[in-house]
Write a sequence for this structure.
């Protein structure tokens, strides 16, 4: 009977060891599950952050392209204004020279009229002297 008790005791001890090993495996599995869940959450967070970063990057690139287009249009506008200014300057110079020519012509006409007027006045004065003498 002592052999039976020893055998049963040994069986009980083996079962206790198996139970302890099973408990350890359960604890390890729970840790693995917990770690896996945390990893999945981290992966989800990383994916969400990547998507948010992509959206921000795309929006930034779009705004950069828009600002470059605006800058290019500004440069074109400035260039066109410079061309327009140059044209106005040329037109102003042309008008100035035309007016100079007109002024010279008017000065010449005025001078001719003054000479004509002086000649008429002299002739008139001579005719008056002749009348007075007669």
């Amino acid at each position: 009977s002592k052999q039976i008790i020893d055998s049963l005791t040994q069986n009980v001890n083996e079962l206790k060891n198996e139970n302890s090993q099973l408990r350890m495996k359960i604890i390890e599995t729970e840790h693995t599950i917990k770690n896996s869940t945390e990893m999945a959450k981290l992966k989800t967070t990383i994916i969400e952050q990547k998507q948010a970063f992509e959206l921000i990057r795309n929006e930034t690139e779009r705004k950069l392209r828009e600002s470059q287009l605006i800058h290019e249009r500004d440069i074109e506008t400035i260039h066109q204004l410079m061309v327009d200014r140059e044209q106005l300057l040329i037109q102003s110079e042309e008008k100035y020279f035309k007016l100079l020519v007109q002024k010279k012509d008017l000065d010449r006409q005025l001078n001719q009229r003054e000479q004509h007027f002086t000649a008429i006045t002299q002739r008139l004065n001579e005719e008056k002297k002749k009348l007075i003498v007669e």
